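This part of the workshop introduces the protein records we will be handling. A record pairs a protein's sequence with a compact description of its fold. Comparing a sequence with its tokens is the quickest way to learn the format. The record below serves as our worked example for the rest of this section:
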Amino acid sequence: MIEFSNYEEAKLLQIAIMLRRLGLYRNYKGYNRLAYAVYLVTENSSRLEAVVKEVYMPVAEKYHCSWGAVERCLRHIILKTWTFNYDELCELADTKLKKPPTPAELLDIFAVYLSAVNA
């Protein structure tokens, strides 16, 4: 079982609430990978400057998968939210999106939204 501190648990709960707005629930196999990736970016947004090394690889290590599996998870989430929850995604992004975000852009959208909510 993967252990988290109380602080991490509280942050992951905030992330879970946001993800539910997009119709993303814990029964999705990549949910925990996504939530932890968002957590890492909320803790240090400069991780997005080296997303593979600073986000995908730590998530992959924690969840015993490849960094490619982490990126694939994010791409799947992008497709799902773009197709089924476009309006909610645009609301979180605070702009009308013209094209699906990249995985790094999606993480940034989530991190900025969470920072604004906690401000």
User: Anything to note?
Assistant: DSSP finds six helices and no strands in the chain. Helices lie at 6-21, 31-43, 51-63, 67-84, 86-93, 103-118. The two ends are 32 Å apart (CA to CA).
